[in-house]
Amino acid sequence: MTETTIIVGAGPAGGRCAEELLDAGYQGRIILIGDEPYEPYERRPLSKALLAGAVEPARLMLRQAEAYRIEGVDLRLREFVSRIDRANRQVLLRGGEKLDYDRLVLATGGRARRLGGKDQHVHYLRTLDDSLKLRRNLEDAEIVGIVGGGLVGLETAATITRLGCAVTVVEGSPTLIPGVASEELAGHILDLHRRCGVEVLLNCRATDFLAKEDGAQLRLSDGQTLLLDVMIVALGVQPNLELAVSAGLAVEGGGVVTDEFGRTSDPNIFAIGDITMQWHPVFQTRLRVENQASAYAQARSVATTLAGQPSPCIEIPTFETNQFGISIEITGLVPPNARMIWRGHPAVGPAIGFVLHQGRLIGAASFNSGREMRALHYLIAEGIPLNRDALANPHISLSALTGGAVALNDAPIDQPFDPLAPF
Ligand SMILES: Cc1cc2nc3c(=O)[nH]c(=O)nc-3n(C[C@H](O)[C@H](O)[C@H](O)COP(=O)(O)OP(=O)(O)OC[C@H]3O[C@@H](n4cnc5c(N)ncnc54)[C@H](O)[C@@H]3O)c2cc1C
Fold it and tell me: What is the rounded distance in angstroms from the CA atom of residue 309 to the CA atom of residue 298?
């Protein structure tokens, strides 16, 4: 009898897992269930190119709905899985239908954290519909407020500033991107935004807001009131853990606990993407990360494992972001108080900031230096002993530091710096 794998959640992780199962030659039946009306799509452009009107929704789709059907994937959109019956290996759909599985992959991702109260007049940015609605409302807007100075809030600020609006970002913490970037790195990103005209208020909270017909009044903890045409809330992600919790799977630190193969505490259930708290063999700890590269790597690892060739996920987590035309990649671990060693300076051109711990690289941030990412990943994964002088010296290639294991990258340097260039 053919076995069945059900993937719950048709976001980037779930969609990519179905593709990887096909690529790995998986012989079983694949059912991909998502509650959104769209086939799996990338969320990255929602705060950038799609919001700016530089691309249209069709470009975001991993593949067209028809292509899944042609390849034998049973893609079920607008369907919500409300319960897992582990004893009978079944999932229950909201409409009452029950589906049997042999293996289950949870890829339920997250939803935007909300302000609470009557917030129907404010914008959030998690789905394609959110981004399209915001894009429409920005057409007549001049003054925009963004509550939350994380990566999505900052990308959105950069996009909207370049569309010609005056943007204020309100962040409750003393630094931007708390929890992802070190204070030093966040300082460089703060400089970039201020240089490009974004007003950034740190240590400042939104205490109240009044939605009006033509905008919103936002009251702040420093006593100011902002009159806004558009208000956006970017307070991070609330992981969709309800299914896993009600099924009794192990959950820790806001994520479903998995081993390096994506296996949860039930050997027939796997988890991938933003909901996971996955064991990382390189860092010897469990990590919960929210980025597309990790979601795709976990999808690949689970798919090959299900297809009979178990392969652990050893991807070094990397968040790639683009702000004011500058490509920034934050990889590995960059703890809040890390003192970074710089090669180049982020304000003037391509630069890399390294985080050394006990003579080994554990993390880095690159500004328009994405071509060095393979070497950085190698140095982190292999734990090569390094010293500060060699890292800071632009005349010593990162390839040389890998001992030639990663080829010298002679690709042209990523674009010159021009943060105010048009899209
Ligand atoms: C605006 C924005 C910009 C971003 N930019 C970047 C970037 O530049 N670089 C980067 O690396 N990452 C970026 N990210 C993060 C990246 O998009 C996420 O890491 C990625 O979407 C995670 O994929 P996922 O499939 O795990 O979860 P999700 O994308 O959240 O997808 C999960 C899907 O499952 C559905 N679902 C949940 N529960 C159920 C259920 N019970 N039944 C059926 N369906 C269900 C959800 O509705 C959703 O469609 C960005 C995210 C956003 C929102």
Answer: 14
Position 350, amino acid: P
Rounded distance from Cα 281 to ligand 1 centre (Å): 24
Q: Which two tokens stand for residue 396?
A: 């010593």
Considering the domain delimited by 325-401, tell me its CATH architecture. 2-Layer Sandwich (3.30)
What residue's CA is closest to ligand 1, atom 19? 291
In this structure, the residues whose C-beta lies within 6 A of any atom of ligand 1 are 8-14, 33-36, 43-44, 46-47, 80-81, 107-110, 125-126, 152, 240, 243, 273-274, 290-293, 295, 319-321
Q: How many Cα atoms sit within 13 Å of 290 on the Cβ side?
A: 22
Mean pLDDT along residues 352-357:
96
DSSP-derived 3-state class of residue 384: coil
What spacing in Å lies between the alpha carbon of 43 and ligand 1's midpoint?
6
Express as a percent the part of the chain with pLDDT over 90: 88
Per-residue pLDDT tens over the stretch 60-94: 999 999 999 999 999 999 999 999 999 999 999 99
Residue 418 predicted with pLDDT over 80? no
**CATH class given for the domain over 4-111+238-306:** alpha beta
